Automatic annotation (TrEMBL):
It is found in: Cytoplasm. It comes from Mariniflexile soesokkakense. PANTHER family: RIBONUCLEASE H2 SUBUNIT A (PTHR10954), RIBONUCLEASE HII (PTHR10954:SF18). The keyword Nuclease applies. Its main location: cytoplasm. This is Ribonuclease HII. A divalent metal cation binds at D16, E17, D108. Endonuclease that specifically degrades the RNA of RNA-DNA hybrids. It catalyses: Endonucleolytic cleavage to 5'-phosphomonoester. Its EC number is 3.1.26.4.
Amino acid sequence: MLLKNHSNFVLECGTDEAGRGCLAGPVTAAAVIFSSTFNNSILNDSKQLSESKRDSLKPIIELKALTFGVAHVFQDEIDQINILNASILAMHQSITQLTPKPEFIIVDGNKFKPIGDIPFETIIKGDSKYLSIAAASVLAKTYRDAFMNTIHEEFPMYNWKQNKGYPTKEHREAIRKYGITKYHRKSFRLLPEQIKLDI
């Protein structure tokens, strides 16, 4: 059973991102605040849930949350500021959409930067411990997947509908064959041979 709150603050927000390890598309983050009465026995870290479960949870989270925000940071900005900074920026952008403003933030992972004067804590595997972070992980994943499905129509040969921009064998083969698109992250190692060291 996931925990409701980490702090003693009423307006505690959970935040998480999706798409950090992808070769194409945005990194997407979400932030969620629930009331103290919210409960859901299915909600978990989005990676532990099937696509159909995530899709069914999305409207429940949006309906039951006191407030939520979702933000994309796109590949050009990822290439400029690096993926860690882009992930934190996406989280900040999703948090600034919240009304009421959170009194405390819990973040999945171990890296974050202060946003204003709001106290925060980073929690390793927070998305499998706290309802609000799990909900943020589900929203980040479903919104990002929906975006990847849309751009799949533009470049079907990369099969983003299936791989969502992650570095699958098929995605790498398509890059080898067709080159890269405007949605690819140019700062990433897009093909394994880029990794080889000249010793």
